[in-house]
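Hi R.,

Here's the chain you asked about this morning:
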Amino acid sequence: MARTIDQQIAEAQARLNRLKTRAKASETRRKIIVGSVVTTEALKDPKIARWMAATLRKTVTREVDQKELVGLLADLDAKAQSAGAGEP
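And here is the predicted structure, written out as tokens:
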């Protein structure tokens, strides 16, 4: 039994939606990996910590997101200050 044009369109749209979902999941995973690497390095290097804290404060504008970053920003600030205290 042959599929109607409408059935073929519905199947193509469903396939497109699955591909879009996979692409979004891949992009999200990539962001998580990059964010993890940058955060780890920032917590080791005062210069990167200063840059990351300033960038986050400048670009994260939603209150709910800012609240999520409070602890990280405190850690970054502490690392950025450690450069002045003679730590590497």
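One quick note: The chain is about 80% helix and 0% strand.

Cheers,
M.
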